[in-house]
Amino acid sequence: MYAADVSTIHEGLSKLYTQIGIPYFIQSSLAGQGFVTIGDVKWRWGTPQDAISNSPAQLLFTAGLNGYDAGTSLHTAIRLGQLVELVTKAHNREVEDTVKPEMDDYKATLMTGQRQDLEKAYLKCYSEVAKINNQGSDHFTAVVNRAIGRGAVPYTDLKHMVPYMPDFETSKTSTRKKTSSGEEFVEESVYEPSGEKQWKQTMTVFRTTLLMCLAGNPNQANLKLTKESLDEFYDWMYGDELLQRSPAPSLKVVMYTERKAWKNISIYVHEGSTLQDALAKVRADSMFWIREVYERIGRGKGTSEYPDSRSRSRDKSSQDKGKSKGKGKAKGKSKWNASAAWPHAQATAPAAAASHSPTPKGKTWAKVDPKNKEYCKKHLVYQNCPGKCGRSHNCPILKLDNTPCNQNHLPGPACPHY
After folding, report:
1. Domain ranges for the chain
2. 3-state secondary structure (DSSP) of residue 375
3. pLDDT, tens digit, for every residue of 39-95?
4. Number of C-beta neighbours around residue 149 at 10 A
5. Sign of the dihedral defined by the CA atoms of residues 102, 279, 123, 200, in that order
6. How many Å apart are CA 283 and CA 403, to the nearest integer?
7. How many whole angstroms separate alpha carbon 115 and alpha carbon 212?
8. 3-state SS class at 31
């Protein structure tokens, strides 16, 4: 009987109705008149006293109407007065949360029913349910939602992407801090992902939270983004072009590059691009990916470029153990050597270009070409030679006759002798 009208009531107001015990007849009457949000009901009556005095006649529950007598009519009116008091506080908090400066984001948290509203918006926009284990915490979701409400793309580091249901492995004790004005607040955080599976789950939490907040702010026309394009962007990052390429970058390099990409996206949106165009622009920026990922391949496992704060003391102690007590400089230390990627070969016949080395696929590479010119490791292994190095950039894979292919292509599946 009342289902059609009651279904239009926003989640936050619906929870207050349930908390106070407002009859469905009253809820339906208000919703039928268009009062479906906390702000609507707040301004329906100016004060709780106005609601108690005027609501019986306005909503037709005076004594003798719709099954009400003098006692139940007064009781319902008093409950509406309590409702006005609560919605006034909730509405004031909503306004305050909207107009707070950005520096106050550290105090942001979701209000009653706000997560359910965002979930409904996600379902309506993307035709699927936002799984609770893929959603962010109340604080993280509120920070993202506030940024999008201001028309900005949120930029958050990995340790503050706290899931709504964190694992024991990643959860971290909250830290109590103080602002410059002396106001205390609790900072929630998690440990940065230590493996590919954990990082991908963190990215799922970020993506789901972002899409929930985008769906919940349909008025931000500049921040429209399809779920398909976001999924395609991360499928590309996880695939053979980046994370699974050979030779592969370290996970830490990819993790931090993904955050740098979103920093650039945030800047492009601030400069006037749409979110959809900004994402495509970063994806197409080949120089960004070369600089941040491809040029870092082969420099070690990434810890020297992106140190992990949790492992610094451990790394330092292991380095100290490796030091020798001798007088020799740097004795006992082991440094990564790029030449290790191209092992020294044993001497072979002169026709085989003097020496060669095995590849991971079991193929053999010549070390010099038929003109006795050394093959360029930077180009053939890492693809980052600046050019004019004086070495050969041709294919070094040995053929069945024990001579190098020496054609103008990289060693790999493109070579007919691979």
Report:
1. 3-99, 102-174+184-222, 225-307, 342-418
2. strand
3. 899 899 989 999 999 999 999 999 999 999 999 999 999 999 999 999 998 888 777
4. 16
5. negative
6. 41
7. 9
8. helix
